[in-house]
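COMPLEX REQUEST
Ligand: zinc ion
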Amino acid sequence: MKIIDHRLHQDDGTPYPFVETPNHGEKLSPEFLVMHYTAMHEAKKAVDWLVNPAAQASAHLVIGRDGSITQLVPFDTIAWHAGRSSWDGRTGLNRYSIGIELDNAGRLTRQGAKWCSWIGREVAEDQVVQAVHKNDRELAGWEAFSEPLLQVALEVSLLLFQTYKLKDVIGHDDIAPQRKQDPGPAFPMHSFRARMLGRAEEHPVVHEVTTTLNIRSGPGTSNPTVPGSPLPPGTKVEILSKQGEWRRVDVLQPVNGQADLQGWVHQRYLKRID
Ligand SMILES: [Zn+2]
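STATUS: Structure written out below.
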């Protein structure tokens, strides 16, 4: 695929379906990519909603479970996907980001023996990922993202990163953590992000912890520590994202019996090692 005049085309020059929406702003110079899920069961329904003036919402792209792509807003125009949001010193991320909606039902609840989406539709057990959202404490079900959708999302995101020299890819749940849970824990944000940034950085920047350091479930000392906390001095971590003085890190070694530990630490106690 390729981008011509801020619209997505196939390699042979055929444009992807473009459905115009009134729900957009003016000129955009994107710096970030923001990932969402639709909280629906069909991409077409999401497209229908996002082109309805009543929605007051849109996105640049909607990617279906089958990997189909629909573009609603050109990439040089503001789409309305982020709402009240902040990241990396910016507020109102619509003005700084491209938004992609992924066809996925999102958070699920147990109803008897079944997992159901918020509209009450059942999701088969083998399509359910059980996980605690990083901004939450409670174990919940999440619909797994389909493989064709993830493949296409990766391909189009890499193209957007290259074309617009984007700085980072983040979730709606990163920029509006009080309000939003998408794309949620079923989306492989860590590896996805590594692929996006891999082209910009030859190798991940590793930091070392300089003291015995609490690692928390959110940015700020009011958030509880996570199992495995505190990190001993000398623990090596990789920074995944940031909010003010806080950094969400991936701990690169098992600590206190916990492997694959992730959480938030204060940046003051991190020292970059080259
Ligand atoms: Zn969203």
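REMARKS: The pocket of zinc ion is lined by residues 36, 172, 180, 182 (CB under 6 Å). The chain has a mean pLDDT of 93.
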